[in-house]
Amino acid sequence: MYNTSVNQYLREHIRTVMDWPAPGVQFRDITPLLQDAKVFRVLIDAFVHRYMDPALRPDVVAGLDARGFIIGSVIAYELGVGFVPIRKKGKLPFTTVEETYELEYGSATVELHVDAVKVGHRVLLIDDLIATGGTMMAGKKLLEKLGAEVMEGAAIVDLPELGGSAKLRASGLPLFTLVNFEGV
Predict the structure, then answer these.
(1) What does the angle CA 36 – CA 38 – CA 42 come to, to the nearest 5 degrees?
(2) Helices 67-79 & 37-51, crossing angle to 10 degrees?
C-alpha cells in the first residue's frame, strides 16, 4: 500500500460482479473491504481522519440502510459521537418520520425515529455507494425535517455516470467519496 494512494488501494479491494442483480449491471461489491482487517482499517481511517477536523466534525453520524450502518457506526464510535440508523419502512420500533423516493422500477420509503437528532445537529450522512442519489436525498430530507443540518454526505463509492452525485450536489449537499468508478 505504501506505493499507492488510499483511494487506489481501496479500489483494488472492491469486487465487480457482472450482470448482478440484472443483465448489464456491474455491481460494485464492498464486502472484500470489510473482510480483510487491514483494508477495513484503512477504509475507516480514511473517513475518521477527515471528520476529526473540527470544521468537519459532526454531532452525529446517520447511516443509510443497510451498508451505511456498517461503516457509519464504526466511524461514529471512532469519532466519539452518536449513530442513528435510517431504515427501510417498517423496521424501526418507535415513532418515525418517513420519506418516499423514486427508484428505477417503483418507489421506496425510509424512516427515522422522531428523536434521532436535535434541531441544529450537524449530521454526517453516510452510505456505501452513490448511484442515482435517491436514498441519500431521502435521508437528507428526513434529517432536515427534524431540524438537523446535513453537513456532508459521504460514501465509499461514487458512480457518477448514474447522476446521483451531481443531483445531490445540486441540492446543496457537499459530498465526499473515496473511490470513483466513472467510465468503468
Answers:
(1) 115
(2) 60
Beta-ladder partners of 153:
125, 175
Spell out the residues 6+ positions from residue 155 whose beta carbon is closer than 8 angstroms to its own.
126, 127, 128, 129, 130, 136, 175, 176, 177, 178
Query: If you classify domain 56-179 with CATH, what class do you get?
Result: alpha beta
Whole-prediction pTM: 0.94
Q: Indicate the Cα dihedral angle 146, 150, 155, 160, nearest 10°.
A: 110
- Give the cell for residue 25: 449491471
How many CB atoms sit inside 10 A of residue 133's CB? 26
pLDDT tens for residues 73-128? 999 999 999 999 999 999 999 999 999 998 767 899 999 999 999 999 999 999 99
φ, ψ of residue 32 to 5 degrees: the values are -60, -30
Q: CA angle, corner 45, sides to 76 and 11, nearest 5?
A: 115
Strand, helix or coil for residue 78: helix
- Residues whose CB falls within 8 Å of the CB of residue 79, separated by 6 or more in sequence, listed in order: 48, 51, 52, 57, 58, 61
- Annotated domain spans of the chain: 56-179
Q: What percentage of residues in the chain have a pLDDT greater than 90? A: 91
